[in-house]
Specification:
This protein is mainly alpha-helical and 136 residues long. Helices cover 77% and strands 0% of the residues.
């Protein structure tokens, strides 16, 4: 148990510094926290009608997801810097705008590409706003 808590502490410190793997941010610190906050903490707030408990728990969850928002931005993998030659080579390999349009038209490539970091931040904002509603 002590070893497990030590791993969590190290992961938390590495995440705050921006050194943690992004998949750990998504699944370990994100998806698990979304589930726990919705299925457990949200139900507790509705079941226990103590203003002090509601405010304390909602504030704690808001602070956590503000931290998660910050960490999601900080730990997102950076795109490698490309030279002009590498950029031109990528342009030639992609085939230009007409080939890209045809691939999208015939559903060989997705029409829109989802940015994982932006999706994570949007979910964090929704959770923050949901628990902020308990503070009023």
């Amino acid at each position: 148990m002590k070893n497990f808590l030590n791993k969590i502490k190290i992961s938390f410190i590495n995440s705050s510094k921006g050194l943690e793997n992004f998949s750990v941010i998504i699944w370990g610190w994100g998806a698990l926290a979304y589930g726990v906050s919705y299925f457990i903490f949200n139900k507790l707030i509705y079941l226990i009608n103590s203003k002090f408990f509601d405010y304390s728990l909602a504030t704690l969850i808001i602070v956590y997801f503000i931290w998660h928002f910050y960490v999601a931005i900080k730990c997102y993998p950076k795109a490698p810097k490309l030279t002009k030659e590498e950029k031109e080579k990528l342009k030639l390999e992609s085939g230009g705008a007409s080939k890209t349009f045809l691939r999208k038209l015939f559903l060989q490539e997705p029409i829109t590409k989802m940015n994982t970091r932006n999706m994570l931040c949007a979910i964090d904002i929704l959770v923050i706003l949901h628990f902020y509603s308990f503070l009023h």
